[in-house]
Amino acid sequence: MGRTQIFLLAGSLCVLTAIACSENPNDVKLQSRSAAVISPTETLDQSITRLLALFPRNLDQRNVDAEGADLNPRATWDQIKKKYETGQSKPAHLVIAKRKLVALSDWVARNSAMMSPPPNNETRTSAGARLVLYMSLYVYGGPMTTPPAYTPGADATAGVVTPNAPATIVTPTLHAGVQLEAGSVAENTVIVVTQNPTPYPANCSGPLQTKFCQYPQFYTFEMFPHSRLLKAGVFNVCHVNSGDARRPLADHDRFSLAHAKPAIPANYVPGGKIFDQNGESIEVLPRVHQTFSTCVENSYASNSVSGGLGVLSWLGHGLQKLLTPKTAYAVDVGLGGLSFDMSPFNVLDTLSSPDLAVQSLSVAPASVNSGDHLTLSYSVTNIGTATGGLVPATIFLTGSAAVEGPPPVDEQIGSITIPSLPPGVTDTRNNLDVVIPPLSMPGSYRIRLVVGSDATAADANTANNSMSATLNVSSATNLGTLEGDDASVGWAINDAGHVLGYSYSTSQGTSRPFLWVDGQKTTIGGFESSFASASGINNLDEVIFNTVTTAGIPHAFRWKNGTVTDLGTVPGTDGSVAQAINSNGQIVGYSQTRDSLPRAWIWQNNVMTDLGNLTGGSYAVPVDINDVGQITGSGDVGVPGGPYAWIWQNGSVTTLTTFPGVTIPTAINNSGVVVGLHIEPNATTIHAFQWANGTVTVLPDLPGQANSEATDVSSDGRVVGYSFGPGEHAVVWQNGRVIDLGTVGGDTGFANGINGFGRIVGGSRTADGKTVATIWQAPPSP
């Protein structure tokens, strides 16, 4: 083909298309989903009367019904109303009313083009269809039926079907219609096809109860009398774009026609597919070839109600297909659906599926303590091709490789529900409150949001359903204070995780020991004085504490199951101080007079035994006892200087250190490992030490600090204490390194005790400067 021929063809196409497009006298437009929806305020009869008044009276020569009998539309409507009213008691009159309704409806459908222009810029065809619908609702539903809402520019049509003839009822745009064989109805029947005026702006939303993607336009097919077709009709509804938000998300070849699922299973269409689970209530109709409805996307609109098009109109459609990309007319003049029931119909993509993707996730603050609240923000978008239902989402806390011990595992710390999201719609939340579990080990974690963890939640691609954000966690948990107090300290912890501490009021100058068990604090002994301190707890929840008499003399007590026992004093001394208790109930401490040196004692079987100076020196201060009866403490051990650290067992003394300065042990575990502090002779630096099998090891300070003190040692050799100068930080020494345990928000922390499972107690400051009893979880040891 030469260039001249191409230009001639192009010119011919333009001319033919222009002629075809000018063949629409009523200028019917594709309905915009944003068009105004009108809800009539009149009764059915008032609306019908106003619409009938639009027909000119000079149409008398046309006023004959389908059988050729005279028909005056206004007078006929008055006759129908009278027959309807008397028909409530005389059924034969109601039959006459329905017969006259068919005749009047047929006349209106054939003459709607002759109406005066309807109000609100409604098309004549739409007004005529609305009039037929209103009259039918009056007769079949009663005069009190509320007139349904309508859109003036909606695509609608009406017609009459007889039992012995085939019929095609198609809307002016050719975007919806039904084709019936002869014998499809048992009596003369009125059929009305109306476009649903309800706006559905979100992608895939629509009137059908389904998660599949629905595409506009939406049509309702109704027949009067209400019944099923005797033969399956061929229905079709076209997809027509309605703005950028309602563009198809898939190729038109995937589309099928669907309608509301019939209530009775016997009425299901053979070859159709029922969806009635997980929010579905539709029937997808079997596909059939049809030629009465043309689905060229964004095509011009025809005014033909019967479905017949002139030659130029068909040429216009054919030429438009020739010049239009395939994706715009994939179901052009082809796939309809079979159904026996009139109902709402709509185009669906039955292969569509939602795809929820986590687009963003963040937490604030990025560093917290265990037990703290944090705010989680997220956005989840449906990037799929179908509307998703309610989808569960789970929030996990996952340890990172930076934390020592076994591989990290997920711990669920929250759950939410993602709402039903149409394609392209995002669910965003910026204020989700999440609590970090108490006693979480310190280290780097990930907060992970997993959407659709329930296997029943449909999702096209689960690979994008998860996202995580980094979170630094200190294991510090604030144990609080006793009511009325403003500060507290944790002193010791047993293997059950029960904490012994004391709570005090800085304004009153009083303190009270307490036992903390699973979040509940119990006051110990009922003592409240200027000095009531916690000392130790064993695995039987036996507690020792000290208080001060009114004369200012310290006194030691044991508390067990709510009962307080006075431990007494060594004869010849004024008071006593309990220092430690082991799992056998043995308690060690010391007594002294105001002008004497300390004397060691052990309390067992309700008897206090004076151990004297233990080491042959002038004094001895025991500080701890393990379960095998080894006691550690400090004294002069008969050697100038000191005091020095020692271990006593069954009268035998082992001196641990005699190097210059002051050596003070603080704890001993069941393996005989002793920890404590050593003060250099110049008294300017203090260092934590550990003694094991005759070897003394100085424990490292935190970087940037010059001092440290060890306060306790666990059964597996982990040591706790604090590093200071400048500042003060609770630390744990394990695996050859020192680890900062953090605080509950302030700048100071100190550790006093550790149990066999790595749980640590002490105190730390809050952000507002208060000191509170604190519990930590040490990283696991290999």
In short:
By secondary structure, this protein is mainly beta.
Please tell me about this protein's structure.
- With 782 residues, this protein is mainly beta.
- The chain has six helices and 48 strands.
- A seven-stranded antiparallel β-sheet has the order 1-4-5-12-7-9-8.
- A hairpin with a 2-residue loop joins strand 28 and strand 29.
- Helix 2 (44-52) packs antiparallel against helix 5 (124-141).
- The radius of gyration is 45 Å and the shape is rod-shaped.
- The model is unreliable at 1-34, 297-333 and 401-407 (pLDDT under 50).
Query: What is the 3D shape?
Result: rod-shaped
Ranges where pLDDT stays below 50 over 5 or more residues in a row are 1-34, 297-333, 401-407
- Helix tally equals 6
- CA-atom Rg in angstroms: 45 Å
Q: Helix content range of the residues, please? A: 10-25%
Tell me the structural class: mainly beta
What is the number of E strands? 48
Cα separation of the termini: 83 Å
**Strands ordered across the widest β-sheet:** 1-4-5-12-7-9-8
Mean pLDDT: 83
Indicate the proportion of strand residues. Answer: 35-45%
Oligomer classification: single chain
Largest sheet: 7 strands, antiparallel
